[in-house]
Specification:
Elements lengths: L2 E10 L5 H11 L3 E7 L2 E8 L1 H13 L6 E10 L7 E3 L20 H7 L43 H8 L20 E3 L2 E2 H13 L4 E4 L4 E6 L3 H11 L7 E3 L3 H7 L4 H8 L5 E5 L16 E5 L4 H10 L3 E5 L11 H8 L5 E5 L11 E5 L2 E6 L9 E12 L9 E10 L9 H17 L6 E5 L5 H8 L4 E5 L1 H12 L6 E11 L5 E9 L4 E7 L2 E2 L4 H5 L1 H12 L12 H13 L5 E2 L2 H11 L11 H9 L11 E3 L2 E3 L1 H12 L4 H27 L3 E5 L6 H13 L3 E3 L11 H12 L5
Parallel strand pairs: 2-5, 8-14, 10-12, 11-15, 17-19, 19-20, 21-28, 23-27, 28-29
Antiparallel strand pairs: 1-3, 1-4, 2-3, 6-7, 6-14, 8-9, 9-13, 10-13, 11-12, 15-16, 17-18, 21-22, 22-23, 24-25, 26-27
The structure holds zinc ion (2 copies) and fe (iii) ion.
Amino acid sequence: MTRRASGRVEGVVQGVGFRPYVYRLAREEGLAGYVLNDERGVLLDVEGDPAAVERFVARLPAEAPPLASIESVAWASLPPTGGRLFRILESARGGEPDAPVAADAATCAACLGELFDPGDRRHRYPFVNCTDCGPRFTIVRGVPYDRPLTTMAGFVMCPACQAEYDDPADRRFHAQPNACPVCGPTVRLGEATGDAALHLAATALLDGEIVAVKGLGGYHLACRADDEQAVARLRARKHREDRPFALMARDVATARTLVELGEAEARLLAGHERPIVLAPRRAGAPVAAAVAPRNAELGVMLPYSPLHHLLAHDTATTLVMTSGNVSDEPIAYRDDDARERLAGIADHVLLHDRPIHTRTDDSVVRAVGGRPLMLRRSRGHVPAALALPLAAPGLLACGAELKSTFCVAKGARAWVGHHIGDLRNEETLRSFTEGVAHFEELFAVSPEVVAHDLHPDYLSTTYALAREGVEHVAVQHHHAHLAAVLAEHGERGPALGAIYDGTGYGTDGTVWGGELLAGDLEGFDRAGALWPVRLPGGDRAVRQPWRMACAWLVAAQDSEPAPLPGIAPRTWQAVAQLARTGLAAPLTTSMGRLFDAVAALCGVRTEVTYEGQAAVELEAISDRSERGAYPLDVADGVLDARPTVLAVADDVAAGVEPAVVGARFHRAVAQATAQACAEIAGARGLDTVVLSGGVWQNRLLLELTLALLRDGGLRVLVPERLPPNDGAISFGQAAVAAALSPPPR
Ligand code: ZN
Ligand code: ZN
Ligand code: FE
């Protein structure tokens, strides 16, 4: 008496050691059959003793390999064939590829052991990997995920590697990037290769020099983190005035000397995604001041490639590891381009000959209230699928413009692309169009619907509208923020969204950014907003927060406001004039700009070198023990911050510390938000509040508001797997477009 069962496994099951896992499991249970990769995932067939088949069915999802993520297993009973063997069959080709590709994963413990084992044939080999770890998405050129369709295609495996690759019992069975010093990629620094190159790099770093290091998804610029001169030189050469640099610490214990790590932070830091984790900076952290000027946090990550592990080991010091680019350009990832662009910045370039197919920045995450809050979702996470709460036709969503991502979707799955960045740059725009084409091929999505932002001038909108033969869906920016959070939590609404960010095109053509939207995936109603003020000089007001201080003072008082210290009276008066007349000064309800105004009034910052800098620094100085709050009136959903701004100006004039002013302001926004949400939710019978938009990257504001909303009995949804910022817009657009489309056949 035998039984036969056929299983169809979907999810991230290719390139993660799933077939050898199935093979071993079947052998342990004494079952015959086969397993193969196909376009939908893994197809398997087992037969033998009915009790063994039953155990196999139960064990399969429960003991899956670490990098696998099973979405579903569908079983069917079939008549037994009498077979005795269990085999791994060749990948089935043809049809439309649909099998997800895995994300890149940090070096596993077994590979790390080999890396530092003098007796191992991969001792100190910077490309050691196996089915549990190593490059994936960054080297994939197509599907199915097999070596010829990766950037490892040019390396022919030596007999020893080939034997591992062919042995179902081996940890490297069908490990596509499998390599060793005999047959695989090589590191190089100038004329030196291999260990000699690594030695030169480590020596240069210890001497305070700057080394460009080719990583998984692009080049980093590295220097020692405790060397004031080295960091200052890197900052000067990179023209990246104040934006913080990320650090690479050798291990969790070293990271603890730099930042305060709670349980959630430590878990994020050590996870196989290996993101940059933002955590409160420790007093006395051995880090140069120029690493993160005027920031209360440091961004720390652990080594994630064997090359990083070797550098960390050989230098035994914390390194700055910032993306290899000049200020706002995208990270360099092609060797010729990197040599050219990084030549003026790095003293040395440590490169290797395994090509990077897709540029992928480091992901950035922070923990809030013990939960992860993604700030940039890229390497280690992309291209993992995200579930949509409803079925979508083939669709493409083009995102916003500054922290741009795209998203393709079909059925109940969406794939959000890697962080692309500011599209107003020729090279990023090219990454965007190439990335879209790559994802459409990888996930076999032929868009019938193309979603885009309502903003007519975004380059992503221009791209979307140029796609012919599709249905276009325009999605309002803050509606997309709301929808993204609902959808990532598997919900469709309705809910009340407090969506606070810098800029988004409103349905009335003005600049929105402090919005209370009542709605669901299909639509919304603007239930409230911040008091609108002028944005004097448009984009210049974003770079010069003192302009927003001027605009808010003009809105709040009848008399002529006095110029802020450091601003020439004539310039100030000209801007005040713009704010009064509205000439070259569109109306805005932007919450981000209110934070800018207050930061400028406090003397924290009158000009910024990156978006959100003023708010980041205002949060950093705010005294968390302060209990006071400024008035911020709420009436009919309108958050009137005019009395707030006047109270700030009075306190500043009276000599109150900026730390106290900042705290009272944060508390005012949190209280007004909670009050407005309670009123609107009560009036409309809503019980759920969504907090999203870039302003919620502010930990202090988020924690204060969350506590008040929960005390008021409201359920609160915050972003976790996608960022509160515009990196989530494409996913939100996809959710809205799916909800507005007729259900797919
Ligand atoms: Zn491994
Ligand atoms: Zn080899
Ligand atoms: Fe936004």
